[in-house]
Design goal:
Shape: globular
CATH architecture of the largest domain: 3-Layer(aba) Sandwich
Distance between the termini: 73 Å
CATH superfamily of the largest domain: Alpha/Beta hydrolase fold, catalytic domain
CATH class of the largest domain: Alpha Beta
Helix content: 40-55%
Number of strands: 8
Number of helices: 14
Radius of gyration: 22 Å
CATH topology of the largest domain: Rossmann fold
Strand order of the largest sheet: 1-3-2-4-5-6-7-8
């Protein structure tokens, strides 16, 4: 009699587990399908009517344009922003496909991102040759590309946590050593996992180096803007070619020695292409260098200068 009761309990537990599994599976399929078709049915990119979401803050003759990284938003830069905005005018932009900017059905190539940014920069006159353009991670790549395409718009480029890889294989090898979230979000199934990102982007999976506000904004992308930005911008852009074209420009690299996503040695090697470059590193900084050491980054950006007209690369460590 005892064994019969145990058997019935086990059957009941298995049925409950099966029901839970089927419910989760159906829910994931429904959410994934909804995300897929929402993207596929979105309108094609039309630069005439699809303007990026942006914000201008502060005042002063000195001006900055800030470009966020993959899954970021203009709000990424708002931590202690008054450090800069009290004395400088700043343009904060949501890249196409991220934050509150439009999310059209397109391939999110580097050229499309540049075109969308150029329209805002032109419209708001952040193109007078005195502007400092600042980018983080993927935003550093886009900033360098903007500097290369429009060298007379900007005085200086500041590149934070610049992701430089020899090829896609090196990127995969680097990411395979990182956290579970990093591995699945950059692996071969990342496109499909991203379709169900509303399921797993809960507080449980929030990386320690992201603030709650930044993590909430990271949920606003879709699988297309994420996957194609990663493949088309981060992995396919020839940074050495860009750097060689603008190697006479004054540039500043800021990088953390604990960065496990964008290796410091690769960024340092890229900086050596420039004839007038500064490379500032921190022993404690990781890939979210700015969020972790905000004041250090702001002060570095505000205070950097080149003592000689033809200054060669200098390396400073915090």
């Amino acid at each position: 009699m005892y064994y019969i009761k145990i058997s019935k309990i086990l059957i009941f537990v298995k049925m409950i587990l099966l029901i839970v599994f089927l419910t989760l599976t159906v829910s994931i399929v429904i959410i994934g399908s909804n995300e897929y078709f929402k993207v596929i049915n979105a309108p094609k990119y039309n630069p005439e009517i699809m303007q990026l979401n942006y914000e201008i803050m502060g005042s002063g003759e000195k001006t900055f344009v800030f470009i966020h990284g993959l899954t970021g938003s203009k709000n990424y830069w708002k931590k202690e922003l008054e450090t800069i905005s009290k004395t400088h005018q700043v343009l904060l932009v949501d890249l196409l496909g991220f934050g509150d900017s439009p999310k059209p059905n397109c391939n999110y190539s580097l050229n499309i991102q540049l075109e969308a940014l150029e329209r805002i920069i032109n419209k708001e006159s952040f193109n007078n040759g005195k502007v400092i353009i600042v980018g983080h991670s993927m935003g550093a790549i886009i900033s360098m590309a903007l500097l290369e395409k429009n060298p007379y718009w900007f005085k200086t480029g500041v590149f934070i946590s610049t992701p430089v890889y020899k090829n896609a294989d090196e990127f995969k090898k680097i990411m395979s050593k990182n956290s579970f979230v990093d591995r699945i979000s950059t692996g071969k199934f990342s496109k499909y996992l991203c379709m169900i990102h509303p399921v797993f982007m809960s507080s449980v999976f929030k990386p320690d180096n992201l603030t709650n506000e930044v993590y909430e904004d990271a949920k606003k992308h879709n699988w297309q803007s994420y996957y194609y930005s990663l493949t088309e911008v981060v992995l396919k852009t020839d940074l050495n070619s860009l750097a060689n074209t603008i190697k006479e420009k004054e540039v500043l690299f800021i990088h953390g020695k604990q960065d496990k996503i964008a290796p410091l040695k690769n960024a340092l090697q890229l900086s050596k292409v420039f004839t007038k470059a500064k490379f500032i590193s921190s022993k404690e900084g990781d890939h979210q260098f700015f969020l972790k050491e905000t004041n250090f980054v702001w002060q570095t950006i505000k205070n950097h200068s080149f003592s000689e007209k033809n200054q060669k690369l200098t390396f400073n460590e915090n």
